[in-house]
Design a protein that fits this description.
Length: 171
């Protein structure tokens, strides 16, 4: 009887261990975590005049919990990296951008009702007044990604567009 009981317990433990090892749950494979996946890949970036302004590569890391951006401007001297992630605690997308010139930009936001990812900085005190940085990404009708970086007043009105890039996927 004791042997049968030990055999039974051993079999149950083996099944549980085997099932735990086969558990392929992906903590960051939710619809919210995939909202910016349209930006993944290797891209050549153009301005609105059709000139190449740089190259960008976006990859997922840490079991799809982080998207890393690697930017190189066409002049080859300006580079930057961003880390983009969905924060389940406050249900927002976040970006931390760091350039080789030491500039750091922190943004937070989400998808809007038009399917555009809109991230905005905290209010920044400037010499000419307070402002926000806001970056918007969206897919256009040609499956390109458009990235627009705007400077906004405290009231949210656009002061100017700093950058507008059209990302065309490399083959």
């Amino acid at each position: 009887m004791k042997r049968t009981y030990l055999l039974f317990v051993t079999i149950l433990l083996s099944i549980n261990i085997s099932m735990a090892q086969d558990d392929n749950t992906c903590a960051c494979c939710t619809e919210q975590h995939e909202a910016l996946d349209f930006w993944l890949g290797d891209w050549t970036v153009y301005n609105s005049n059709g000139d190449i302004v740089g190259n960008n590569k976006l990859v997922k890391l840490q079991d799809s919990c982080v998207m890393q951006e690697n930017w190189v401007a066409a002049n080859g001297t300006n580079t930057g990296t961003s880390y983009n992630f969905y924060d389940q605690k406050d249900s927002t997308w976040n970006q931390v951008w760091i350039s080789n010139s030491g500039n750091i930009l922190r943004l937070k936001g989400n998808l809007n009702s038009d399917g555009e990812m809109v991230l905005r900085s905290e209010l920044i005190a400037g010499k000419k007044g307070n402002y926000y940085n806001q970056i918007t990404w969206f897919e256009d009708e040609n499956d390109n990604v458009v990235q627009r970086w705007d400077i906004l007043t405290e009231e949210g009105e656009k002061i100017k567009t700093v950058f507008e890039g059209i990302y065309k996927k490399d083959n």
